[in-house]
Design a protein that fits this description.
Length: 120
């Protein structure tokens, strides 16, 4: 079984920065894509940023130029550096990882979510 544990959320003023972390643990053989999603109350869950196992990245237009996704494969961890935060960035942020387990199965796993609140 695999767990994703997120950290780094909190309250920040508009224009500030936060760094989210998501560490995967368990019966992991390798991790393919890792990504961050966010969901505000009453809204759909949207992709924010993704990074492949080879380091290729893509971003939602709304965060491009402000957020940076990265990963440390030795630690099975993905990060999201969020700069120039705006009130509309307020949401619960979820980590997602496409994982090959040691039992040779492959599936997506989700973190528990971490709240990011940006005040104006």
């Amino acid at each position: 079984q695999v767990q994703l544990v997120e950290s780094g959320g909190g309250l920040v003023q508009a224009g500030g920065s936060l760094r989210l972390s998501c560490a995967a643990s368990g019966s992991i053989f390798s991790i393919n894509d890792m990504s961050w999603y966010r969901q505000a109350p009453g809204k759909q869950r949207d992709l924010v940023a993704a990074i492949s196992g080879y380091g290729r990245t893509n971003y939602a237009d709304s965060v491009k130029g402000r957020f940076t996704i990265s990963r440390d494969n030795a630690k099975n961890t993905v990060y999201l550096q969020m700069n120039s935060l705006k009130p509309e960035d307020t949401a619960v942020y979820y980590c997602n990882a496409d994982i090959n387990t040691r039992g040779s199965t492959r599936r997506d796993y989700w973190g528990q979510g971490t709240q990011v609140t940006v005040s104006s």
